[in-house]
Amino acid sequence: MTFREKTSAPADRSITSGGSRGNGTAKKAVWEYAPSAESTEHIQLRDRYDLFINGKWVKTRKYFPTINPATEEKIAEAAWASKVDVNRAVLAAEKAYNNVWSKTSPKERAKYIFRIARIMQEKAREFAVIETMDGGKPIKESKSVDVPLALAHFFYYAGWADKLKYAFPNQQFSSIGVVGQIIPWNFPLLMAAWKIAPALACGNTVVIKSAETTPLTLYKLAEVFQEAGLPDGVVNILSGAGDTGAAIVNHPKVKKIAFTGSTEVGKLIMRSVAGTSKKLTMELGGKAANIIMEDAPIDQAIEGIINGIYFNQGHVCCAGSRLFVQESIKQIVVKKLKHRLKSLRVGDPLDKNTDVGAINSKMQLKKITELVNSGVDEGCTLYQPECRLPDKGFWFKPSFFTNVAQSNRIAQEEIFGPVLSVLTFRTPKEAIEKANNTQYGLSAGIWTDKGSKIFKMVGAIKAGVVWSNTYNKFNPASPFGGYKESGFGREGGLQGLKEYLNF
Ligand code: NAI
Ligand code: MG
Q: Which letter does DSSP use for residue 313 in this model?
């Protein structure tokens, strides 16, 4: 770290925190971080990824490029699975289920899952770098959240594989068969782990599809499965777009669908499986309330607000995107928030000092921009810190709105970007009413010094997860899932196992 007099924008780094826009007029002393780029030399990537079906790499007709959203450079090509490919994958999964996996003892299943976790652990750094390159998230997050949590899920569910009868005592249950899993682009490896680990522990076989912009870490996971000696066809990995996902959903031999993504696509999927016997779990959008009471430890709450909405550029289904501040402390909270925003470092996701990385795709940037413009048009007040964004890639400054009404689009719709809406309340009752005034119900946060307030409010808020005096904390043993249009079914914990068994 070097200290220097800031008179103009630095040439080496595109972003400085809290500085001027480089017009040469400001003479403010700022601490400047030296670049601290994570090495990419150790990673191994192919130029082109075929489909992973029945333990082999299978070619298809169409391929699409996956780019690094921070540089717009192509990283590799990935296969676009057709209906024929999906059928091939489902048949491979069915064969593996009938001939191998359903006959493998729970204790043996556990060994494979443990082995997968151990190999992932050995490759943790490579996974983190590739996740960051493919999706734009800061390396410090992929290293400390995505990868460790993903492998923790494999460890956790490996432990359950031979103890299912203790998990569900006095109940008759059986595995389901072939399960279809469709995941989004915000946490590719982690969402794959959430879905694959319990499915395998319960004795099912899998066909999983990655999202359009982030196919790479799932294919690295395929290499882990090969190294672990997982029998062919137990997990089949596909990439592609909505048509590939729809082919999985509609395949008659797929007995369960686990989906994480937008509420819009979730509804489409529910329509297509209506009238069939397919089981469903849906983890959809959110518009979480993060509630700060006047007796809260304010500096800690500020960190909770920052972590709640700017973590992973706000591409988080449970992001604390609606901030409810008790009126008496609004001024101080807004002042501290402005100050804290100035120190967020936006820029190269591979830099270890970066707090806010690249927006995942051009399309998502367009969506965020459109919603933010609607906020301005509707009369809300936008605050963004001064920072220069890199010329290439997709970026959005960490932002927040004040003067927000509950009816404004930015207070109702999922922005899925680094944009916070600040609202106020006077009494706990009003906070609860406002927090519940949404079509969603995935998560919420409460900040207060008083335990009794926490208990009262947690019970009254319609959300699957409510954090108190913290935010965005995850653990494989605790279930996660929504109310209302945020979906149904739970992932993680015992509840997550239940979704992969027939009772
Ligand atoms: P999306 O819901 O379209 O995509 C999620 C996954 O579903 C992808 O793998 C996609 O290929 C697949 N898919 C798309 N259409 C399908 C269909 N008809 N049948 C089966 N699978 C299908 O999400 P998208 O377009 O990437 O993002 C749009 C918005 O959705 C975001 O701006 C955000 O608001 C929200 N979103 C929410 C997520 C969450 O975790 N709650 C995750 C991703 C997006
Ligand atoms: Mg990509």
A: G
* pLDDT tens figures, 253-289: 999 999 999 999 999 999 999 999 999 999 999 999 9
| 348 confidence band (pLDDT: 50, 70, 90) | very high
Supply the mean pLDDT for the chain: 94
Q: Which atom belonging to ligand 1 lies closest to the Cα atom of 191?
A: 40
Residue 93 near residue 178 (C-beta atoms within 8 A): yes
Q: Look up 380 and say whether it is catalytic.
A: no
C-alpha dihedral, 96 to 175 to 475 to 42, nearest 10°: 0
Q: Is residue 107 classed as helix, strand or coil in its secondary structure?
A: helix
* Buried b or exposed e, range 25-39, using 16+ CB within 10 angstroms: eeeeebebbeeeebe
CATH architecture under which domain 289-477 falls: 3-Layer(aba) Sandwich (3.40)
* CATH 3.40.605.10, domain 48-59+72-284+486-502, yes or no: yes
Domain boundaries, the chain: 2-32, 48-59+72-284+486-502, 289-477
CA distance 152 to 287: 27
CB 354 within 8 A of CB 138: yes
Cβ(482) – ligand 1 distance below 6 Å:
no
Residue 358 reports pLDDT greater than 70: yes
Mutation test residue for ligand 1: of 80, 181, 182, 270, the one with most atoms within 8 Å of CB: 182
CA of 320 to the centre of ligand 2 (A): 25
Annotated active-site residue in 38, 283, 485, 499:
283
Distance 310 CA to ligand 2 centre (A): 20
CA torsion 46-205-192-501 (nearest 10°) is 180
Centre of ligand 2 from the C-alpha of residue 74, in Å: 8
Please identify, by atom number, the ligand 1 atom nearest to the C-alpha of residue 486. Answer: 41
Token readout for 47 is: 């130029």
Q: Which listed ligand is nearest to 368 at the C-alpha? A: 1
The answer, yes or no, to whether any atom of ligand 1 lies below 6 A from the CB of 359, is no
Give 378-436 pLDDT, tens digit per residue: 999 999 999 989 999 999 999 999 999 999 999 999 999 999 999 999 999 999 999 99
Active site residue 317: yes
pTM summary value = 0.94
Closest by CA to 230, choosing from 329, 118, 398, 70, is 118
